[in-house]
Amino acid sequence: MKTCNLLKELRAFCITKQEGSMSKASEVLFASQPTISLQIKTLEEQLKVKLFERHGPKLTITTEGEILYSIVQPLVMGIDHIEDTFKAQYGDLSSGHLTITAEESTILYTLPKVIQEFVKQYPAIRLKVDNVSGDDGYKMLMSDNADLCI
């Protein structure tokens, strides 16, 4: 599966599901409707499943779409709200450290841009990313050895 634009495609999918139409999703994401449509089509081709049944402008999510949504929605929302979550837990962002756990593919393909932006905005925060698999990230989070598990 190509992962270059995967986060954008997953975000477009989640927002389309939440809004009920690609047109409304395009407004939320400040993108054109054809862009949203293409992102979802690309995701469907990569996964080899149909995520929405299309009835003119009306969309109905498929069973496969519901399953994918239940998996990726928490991840997309977590990434989209990483700054708010961090601020809520640590308040002052002028110093400190943040430990993130994630699987290798997430570290390689999803986090670089997020981390780059974070480091620009909060240069005094020491950032540590641990490569974990399975439940290890969750266990680290629950034992206070990590601040965020993706």
UniProtKB/TrEMBL annotation:
MF term (GO), any: DNA-binding transcription factor activity
Gene3D superfamilies documented for this protein: Periplasmic binding protein-like II, Winged helix-like DNA-binding domain superfamily/Winged helix DNA-binding domain
GO-annotated cellular components: cytosol
Keyword annotations: DNA-binding, Transcription, Transcription regulation
Cited CDD domains: PBP2_LTTR_substrate (cd05466)
Source superkingdom: Bacteria
Residue ranges occupied by any HTH lysR-type domain in the UniProt entry: 5-62
Similarity remark: Belongs to the LysR transcriptional regulatory family.
Listed name of the protein: LysR family transcriptional regulator
The organism of origin for this protein: uncultured Thiotrichaceae bacterium
